[in-house]
Structures are given as C-alpha cells and as structure tokens.
Amino acid sequence: MELNDKLEILADAAKYDASCASSGAPKRSSEGKDGIGATNGMGICHSYTPDGRCVSLLKILLTNFCIYDCQYCVNRRTSNVPRARFTVDEVVKLTVDFYLRNYIDGLFLSSGIIQSADYTMEQLVAIARELREVHQFRGYIHLKTIPDADPALIDAAGRYADRLSVNIELPTQDSVQRLAPEKSVHTIKLAMGNIRLKLDEKEAEPKAPKFAPAGQSTQMIVGADASDDQRILTTAETLYGSYKLKRVYYSAFSPIPQSPKSVPLAPPPMLREHRLYQADFLLRSYGFQVGELLPAAGNLALDIDPKLAWALANREHFPMDLNRAEPAMIARIPGIGLRNAKRIVELRRMRQVRYADLVRLKCSMKKIAPFIVTADYRPARDTTPSEALRRSMADVQQQMPLWPELQAA
Amino acid sequence: MSGDAVPSTSPGDADDTAAPIDAVALAIAGHPIPVASFGDFRTAARDLIVRRVPPESVQWSGSETPHGDLLSAGNAGLAPMLPAGLLEQPPAPQPRIPRTLMEMLQSAACYRAPDRWGFLYKIVWRWQLGQQEILSMADEDGARLQHMVKAVRHEEHDMHAYLRFRERPPAAGDPRFVAWFEPAHDVLPQVAQHFAKRMGKISWMIGTPEATVLWDGKRLHGTGPLMRSAADVEDSGEALWLTYYRSIFNPARLNADIMHGHIRTRFWKNLPEAAVVPHMVSQAAAGARKVGQLDTVGKRTGTTIPIAAEKAAPERQQPSSLDDCRRCDLWQNATQAVAGQGARRAKIMLVGEQPGDQEDLAGKPFVGPAGALLDKAMDEAGMDRRKVYITNAVKHFKWEPRGKRRLHKTPAQKEVMACHYWLETELETIAPDIVVALGSTALKSILQSGSVTMKDYMGQPFQHDGRWIVVTYHPSYALRVPSAEARHEAVAAIVEALKTAQRLADGEAPGKL
C-alpha cells in the first residue's frame, strides 16, 4: 500500500481523538545543532480543519488493526474498516517531512492494540526513540500509552516523549466494563499512578533522566454512555487530584459507521462538550469545585456558561465591589476572566476602578453589569430575580436553519 | 532588538558607523526626525526626553516600509518651532524605562502605523511624567500600546503557524526550503529567528513583499524583496499534507466558523490546504457528516479482525479479592487497595489509619512522609522493618479534592467497620503477639468501637483477644502538630511505644516495663 493511502486511513482513524495540544514542553532549539526541531513551551496551532479543531501535531495511528472491541471506537476488531499499518520508518519520515515544511509542531502517536499491549507499546517507543536519537528531533512528541504495558516500557516512553496520556475513556467503571470490555479501569488508574510517581520522582531529583516534561493527560468520551455532566466532572476532578493531569480532554461521541447497538446513534450536542471544557477550565484555573458548579446530579446548562450559571445561583456574593473584593473572587464574576481580574487588581492599586475602565478592558458589559459595583456605578438590577437575568443573558437564539437535515449535528 | 541578527536593508541603519541623528536640533528646526529602526528611535527619544521636548512639538518620519524615503521633507516645517532657549535649560535626568515597558515599546515599534514613532514617544514622555497608568489597558494610550503589542504578537504567531515551506529539488542547491508570506507588520526579523531554531543546519529562505531573509544553516541574512508571490517551487510533499488535512477532519463536527475565526482570510491564498476546504465543507454538509467518515475511506473494503473475545483480552494478574472489595465506596476514588506488608510470621504488627496519597499510588503502606517518620522512629527504637508487619485499618485512600491535590480525610466509622474484615484476616494470618495501634482510627478498628479514645490507652499496654495492644500517635500527627516542641514529644512517644512493643516481643513481661 502506498504511503499516501496509509496516511489516509491512519489519520482518518485518529480524528476522533480530541487532544492535540503541543504546549508544556521545555524550551529546546536546534540552532547550530544537527537535527531539527524546537519547542518554546507554548505550542502552536498550525492549521484548522473545517471541524474547528486545530492541527498542531501529526496525529496518526501506528496501525488501526486492533484486537480490542471497544464499542465507541471505529477501529474495534468487529468493525469493517479498511486497515493499514505504518512501519516505524514511515512514521518517522512523515513527521520529519511535515515538520520541515512547518505543517506541524510534532507528533501525536497512538495505536490500535496488536498482538499484545507490550508489543504495541514497544513499537510506539521505537518510533519516538528513532526520532529523538537517530534524527535528533527536538519537536514535540505525545505518546498515547497502552495501560497494560510493562511499566518499564512506559518508563522508556517518558524518556522520549514530552507528554504521555492514558485514556480513561468513560466516566464510570461500569461503562468501561460494558463498552470497552478488554480495558480495565484498574490498570488504567495504575498506569496513571505510575506515571505520576515517575513525574514526582523527576521533580524531586532534577538531575534524574528526563521524564515526560509536559506531564500527562487523558481523554473521556462524552455521550456514548448515560453519565451526566456531574459524573463526568467528578471523575475529572478525581483524576486531576490523583494523577496531577495537565488536561482532561472531552470528546463528544461521534457516530461511527456500522455502529453497534450498545452506543447511541446520535451524537450529544456539541455545545455539551464545549460547556464541559468551560467547566473544566473553571476547575483547573479558577479554584471552583465540581460541587459548586453542579451541586446535584445533572448536566451543565446549555443556554448559559457555567460561570454565569454559578453566579446566578449564588447571588448573595453579588453585586461585588471591584474596589474591595478578594482577587480570587473577582475572577468569579461572569464576564471577567483571569487576565482581566489581574488587570483590575493592578489598576486599583493606582486608583479607583470605574465603569469605563471595564469597557476599555473589553469586559462583556452586558454580562457583568448586574454583578459589579465600581466607584461610579451600582447596578440598577441587582435585585432582579436570577431567572429574569438568565432569560436576558442566555445565548442568542440562532435563526431557524434553512436545511435542518443538513445542519443537524 | 531581535532585528540585530538580521541586517536590515533600510538606508537608516545600513551604515552602523553613521553619526547619530541630532534629534533635538531637528525638533527645534521643526524638521521631522528620521527613524528607521527601534535603535534610532531609542537614541532620539532619549535626547528629546533629556531636553524636555514635549511630544506635540516633534515630528517623526519613519517610513511605512523599511526602504521608503526616510528623509522625505514632506512634513518639514509643520511643527511649531521650539524655542531656541531649550538647549540652555538644565537637562532632565536620564529616563528610566523599566524592562517590561521597553519590551512593549520594542514590540509596538513593529506595528505598521504612520504615527508609530510619535505615539511611542508620547508613551515615553508620559512615563517620564510619572503617569504609570500608561501600562494599563484602562488608559487610552495604554490600551493602544497594548493593542499594538498584541497585534504584533498575533502577527508573529500567525506567521509561525501559517507559513509553509516548500522543498526544492536537491540539485537546485541552497536554500533547500522556500516560503512566501505577507505579514501585516514588521515581524520578519523575529520570525526568522524562530525558524532558525526550528530548522537546525538546514538552509531556507522566507520572502515577503518588503524584505527577504535567508538562513544558510549558520546565520541569517537579510535583503530587500526578492520574490513577488508564493514560491514557484513544486513540492510533491504537499500532496501528503493535503491527504492528512482531509483525513484528520471529522465531518460529523463541521464547524467552519471556528476555523475562519482562527485563520484570518488574508492568509488563505498562500495556504495549500485552503484550496481543499470548500470541497470538504460542502461534502460534510451534504451528508458525509452523518457517517462521520470520509467516503474515500468508506469505499475501500474493510476488514474485521478475526480473533475470539477471550483471546483478545490482555493477560492480567487476577486482581486480589481486596482489589475487588466493594464493602464501602472508598474504592471509587482510590487508585488501588493497599494491603499490609511485612514478615509472614511477624511478632509485631503496626496498624496505621489508611493509605495516603503516595501509598495509594505505590500500593504499599507507609511509603510517604509519614512512612519516612515511622522508619526513623523504628530505627531509634531498634525495630527492624523487615521483621514486622505494617498495615492500615482502612485499605483505600479517603480524600477530597483541593485544586490539584488530594486532601486526606479521616475515614468514617462505618468505613472503618467495613474494612475491619481485612484487618481481621491479616490478624488471623500473621497472628502477631503484639499490635501497635498508630492513632485513634487504628485503635477504634482493633477494639471495634467508635467511642474509645486514645488517651485512655496511651502508654499502657493492655491485652485484647489474647494479644498485647500498644497505643500511640499516628506518625502524621507528629508531622501535623505546629510547634517543634510538641512534635518532639509526639515522636518520642511513638519511639517509646515501639520500644515497648519490641520488649514485649522479646519476651519481657509488661510488669518489668
């Protein structure tokens, strides 16, 4: 099979994977050195596809042959898809060629399970090793880790890769058992725990050989089982706390060809995935807890973002005086992000914060107006019932689609 | 400035040895001050500030493009003549510009605007007057400065992202890779450095309408414009990229608006992948998105993998029954159950509360900070860790999230009781003569009572179910107490208890203790 045909099949097979970030690697440069590649710690999106997702890494599967039968996965063994397998050299060549042409920032490599977990993991490690040692490639490498593989192989993977990830796949153990019968939450957790121990060891001993400097991440499929957002976010919170993950990626389930009956035929609304990412960001960076965003079982609101929903449910904190409030609380006001919260705190060291300052900071005034007090402003609507505020602030309704059957997600 | 590495072709700094422009003299004469680089501006602005020349009295002439006519006299004479007595005034102190502001000025200087130098001078002037709010977005000039910095950074980012190299045939010689880009601001020098780091010793050239940069594998060379449009280089590698680009797109998630929001329209004409986008979008809208897989792949014959379900399951160690324990809910948030560890026929068994963060990951009891303290205490008491058995009253880690950390939470009595089954099993198997209860949870579990308190049993070995029980603090209590004195006391108490246990194990009757 031609390289082009393999690429078509094995990129297609990888498109359901949500994670693609290339950030977090230590700074590296090839200036004056043999080999190629640089990282600046920030990561760059090199293109966007019409699904709105960025291309920052060459995201492919080593092979889509797979002996597992995960129901949500197009590459499950019972699926009737064309199969292909790259050689180690082909993946290396593609990565280097694409990198030189500035299409990508590095490689994101995953694989179907062939022969055994160990064998598959060995192949992934071999590619990373060849890139790093033979080609002196200093770009970003993200390896998907096979949870059942020998910890020594995961150790080796961490020496070459910037980031490792182990997919938790589904939010509950029951769902994993039902939809991914060959996988086991127990070994997934053990693999994550093992990676975290290695990361901790490396942190405690800076001179130790490097290990996955960009940390570890995971992915959860949303909408393939009946778990609600509270369950999903609680699982994410547990994973963040236990394994110090950099990211949990949420991937809305995409219907797959000849889908088995065990998974739904329709995808969840894309907006749900978006709200989960927003909530996740509030957990990671704003100090929110899942219990605050979703005190009871259920899903995040689709019509308003999670921070606005929290503010509307906790009106006792508002209106908040921007000239007096705790910095951490300012970031909890809907329409004020971390950066603007910081700017407001910096500004108020010099003088009183006024309404016009917020306009210049490009805050979403419609959103924040009912929640703030400044030196020259007090909301007239600070006693308006939350329900009424919500109606006025919910995302604008779209015009009815002209061709609903085409636009239906 | 990063531009230092790329000799600019502009006449202004073609000759580094040229005498610096006398900005003050020009300003007094009402002439525009020629500026071709940030270095020029910096020198001129310093002179002007020292002579207290206000921004509204200065004309600047910087070309839109580095090779324009810098000394065009078109604007000369518009500025009000400054008093000649200016030079006799005592000079103001040298301006002290903080590094962050200097970096912002430098970056904003790349922003193509006719009045860029005048505006930057106004910023310097206002800073010199002590108006620190120019650093804030809330200030009008500050907002514009930040906007310029942001636009320049954005342009750099876009050039890093959307510039595409094409490979020339090896026979054509250097440069091996050629790219064409049309930046909206003067970011080529910085961007060239980015690619120099990326490409190692491989030669390349980037052409823009205003200038060209060449990397010969060792250093950067700048020249005026050499190319007129996208590189006229055939590159067969581009076909693979288009294949990848088409295949990685998931038509089930069509959302072209976001894509357009990220890649600004003016870049599309030079992006190879842009040519295939309309077709992809229309195909996706016409039904491909329902299938979620490109029809090109769908047309090929597929293969199911003939392997029996039992054979596909990976070989795993059978989880122990403790791993499968569902007597309470603690297993859900824990990584694994942590069983006791130690000598099979140990005379002494140490019982702690529950595994902590480290123990949960490692699957072994007392390996974290509390374990280290316990090890030290055992050393001091002359107790050999290999000869004792160490376990916990509760086998799963109970915790609650605090940001990205796990905060230990004391197990509830019902969880202690649920887990007693496992402790009982260990007590039966190991059959120790002495049990050291480390902390109150351990004591409650051993006595199977939620109401007992430590202080009733501390320092007083007693018999229970035919074995000696010694009660002391949990090592993490010693880690938690705030005062050093209390900590020493707690550690001493633990050591004392371990000594007691050791003596009991050596056959001494408690009466002699």
How does this structure look, described?
- The complex is a heterodimer of chains A (409) and B (513).
- With 409 residues, chain A is of the alpha/beta class.
- Chain A is 39% helix and 9% strand.
- Chain A is built from 16 helices and ten strands.
- Chain A has helices at residues 3-12, 88-100, 117-134, 151-160, 173-179, 185-204, 229-243, 270-285, 290-293, 306-313, 327-330, 338-350, 355-360, 365-368, 386-393, 404-407, and strands at residues 47-48, 54-55, 58-61, 106-110, 140-144, 163-165, 216-222, 247-252, 320-321, 372-373.
- A six-stranded parallel β-sheet of chain A has the order 3-4-5-6-7-8. A two-stranded antiparallel sheet of chain A has the order 1-2.
- In chain A, a hairpin with a 5-residue loop joins strand 1 (47-48) and strand 2.
- The longest helix of chain A has 20 residues, at 185-204.
- Chain A is globular and about 70 Å long.
- The two termini of chain A are 34 Å apart.
- In chain A, 56% of the residues are buried.
- With 513 residues, chain B is an alpha/beta fold.
- Chain B contains 18 helices and 15 strands.
- Chain B has helices at 23-28, 38-50, 99-108, 116-128, 140-162, 188-199, 237-248, 256-262, 265-268, 277-291, 295-299, 309-312, 357-362, 369-381, 413-430, 440-447, 475-480, 484-505; strands at 33-34, 60-61, 166-167, 177-180, 204-207, 212-215, 220-223, 341-342, 348-352, 389-392, 399-402, 405-408, 434-438, 462-464, 467-472.
- In chain B, the strands form four sheets. In chain B, strands 8-10-9-13-15-14 form a six-stranded mixed β-sheet, sandwiched between helices. Chain B has a five-stranded mixed β-sheet with strand order 3-4-5-6-7, with helices on one face. In chain B, strands 1-2 form a two-stranded parallel sheet.
- Residues 1-17 and 64-79 of chain B have low confidence and may be disordered.
- The interface between A and B is large, with 106 and 103 residues.
Defining traits:
heterodimer; A: 409 residues; alpha/beta; two-stranded antiparallel ribbon; 16 helices; 39% helix; disordered C terminus; B: alpha/beta; 18 helices; elongated; disordered N terminus; iron-sulfur (chain B); Type-4 uracil-DNA glycosylase (chain B)
